[in-house]
Amino acid sequence: MDVDALRAGTPGCRNRIHLNNAGAALMSQQTLDAVVGHLRLEARIGGYEAAAAAADRVAAVYAGLAELLGGRADEIALFDNATHAWQAAFYSVPLRPGDRILTGRNEYGSNVLAYLQAARRAGAEVVVVPNDADGQLDTSALAGLIDGRTKMIGLTHVPTAGGLVNPAADVGRIARAAGVPYLLDATQSVGQFPVDVAEIGCDFLCGTGRKFLRGPRGTGFLWVRSGVLERLEPHVVEIQSAEWDGARGFDWVPGARRFATWELNYAAVLGLGAAVDQALNLGLDEIGKRNEELGDRMRGLLEDIPAVTVHDLGRQRCAIVTATVDGLESELVVARLAESGVNVTSTEPAHQQFDTEERHPPPLVRFSPHYYNTEDEVEHAAALVGALAGKRL
């Protein structure tokens, strides 16, 4: 991987050390050109006309995402964000009183709120699977909790507040054996390391463009296994997702696009396609290897600083690193690093409710390097944290 060339093709690298890729990564010049170029075309000839002119390139976005995930293009639906993609899948699974949803302690906050709404609305039960000794979802406990009332397993692959990588493929084997639909939130994993739906064994997977894929904001996607489509009822129907039958009924369109809506931001979609192409060209194995190395380096440097505590869980960890500095609020650490030209962020305990119930973590400083970051940048950020910690000793 030619990191110098990648940085030269990333305008944001010129004036910031960007370690907030779990929030929104820096777009490459080719992705920026794809977005701006289509906006200029819309301004020149009209929005509908520009979409028609770009039809083949738009179709290639579905194909690229399918290649990225190991699925088929007809199993992909596009959205304006990952949350809407996740909701389209979740709310399509019919729930009745007494039905059970199984999920983990590290589930993302918006997903948890949807589970709680389903419990209130349908009389379903939300069952939180405990963590194992390493802090990841306990797959033995999961298998023991599945019964005839279990209607869904929902799992966040990589949580928003830590470097944990949950054992998604192990969960997939359990879900397939039990015949239970399995929804994987891969928002923080797609683009960070290889994610293969066949290997994982999920039935749904949602992701976003803006994080480790380095696409534009306002892009998301859903993959749906073809074999589960007839067991589902999408919660929204409109002219993209269904066809009028000529009388007083309708038929769902084939494939995953029955979950989507007609209107799309085609400039953003083409930017997403450019970002996906770049990831495929670089190779997810290479991307994953470098990201793991950068995450390990960041984590190790922070662990060596007195008065700094790293809070990451899990047996397998990724390029997201969370820490606290004794005596300093995390928001203040974020602000001080920003003053020095380093982008990081802090986590919200309320965005990981089930984990907060058990561990009661404070807001954490979240560092998330990506393959275009350098070792020098990681070391500089750690040195700044060390200087802040030293002032509090």
Automatic annotation (TrEMBL):
Alphabetical list of InterPro entries matching this protein: Aminotrans_V_dom, Aminotrans_V_PyrdxlP_BS, PyrdxlP-dep_Trfase, PyrdxlP-dep_Trfase_major, PyrdxlP-dep_Trfase_small
Cofactor(s) needed by this chain: pyridoxal 5'-phosphate
Domain of life assignment: Bacteria
What are the Aminotransferase class V domain coordinates in residue numbering?
A: 18-379
GO MF terms listed in the record are: transaminase activity
Q: Which keywords does the record carry?
A: Aminotransferase, Pyridoxal phosphate, Transferase
Q: Which family does it belong to?
A: Belongs to the class-V pyridoxal-phosphate-dependent aminotransferase family.
Protein name per Swiss-Prot or TrEMBL? Aminotransferase class V-fold PLP-dependent enzyme
Specify the species.
Actinoplanes oblitus
